[in-house]
Amino acid sequence: MNGVPRGSRGLLSYASIFRGSMSDFVGGFSFFLGVQFSLVTEFMRVIISLEEVQKDGYIQLWLECDSSLVCHVFPSKSYVDWFFRNRWNKCLSFYREIVFKVFHVFRETNHCVDKLVSLGLLNRHEFVWYNSLPPSIFLNFFHNRCKLVMFHIV
Q: How many domains does the chain have?
């Protein structure tokens, strides 16, 4: 999962990719939030992801998130802003019913999700679900699935 930008207010989008146990593409989404604080995206992408997983009836979930804040406060009710506390609490009750693991990953390993976030910013649709792998992320997905190293050159 990933969101853009970091720190201050700006145009925000976030995305998630869902993979099966063999790293195959199960689905994904991008969501355009408009002008918002980046901390909102950190929590909303987890909330939307859990809601989608719950709709599809999955009972095991491995969440990789590049937000150490979300990974740290995940099982807590008290650190979440009132703006989405009700939805967060519903996700926590679902989280207690399934096999669930949260892992922090570095942003540099999130190439596929970065591309979906960019699609969300370009398209500016509130919510777009992808049943098949979008062509613009195919190469990144292949590299990630094969555990090939990709570098950000700055």
A: 1
Say if 36 falls within a structural domain.
yes
> What's the pTM?
0.72
Closest CA to 15 of 152, 151, 132, 126: 126
Q: Got the DSSP string for 101-134? A: EEEE--GGG-HHHHHHHHHHHHH--SEEEESS--
H or E stretch covering 91: helix 85-95
pLDDT recorded at residue 62: 80
- 3-state DSSP assignment of residue 34: strand
- CATH at residue 97: 3.30.420.10
Is the residue at 16 inside a domain?
Answer: yes
Q: What domain range includes position 107?
A: 2-145
Residues in the chain: 154
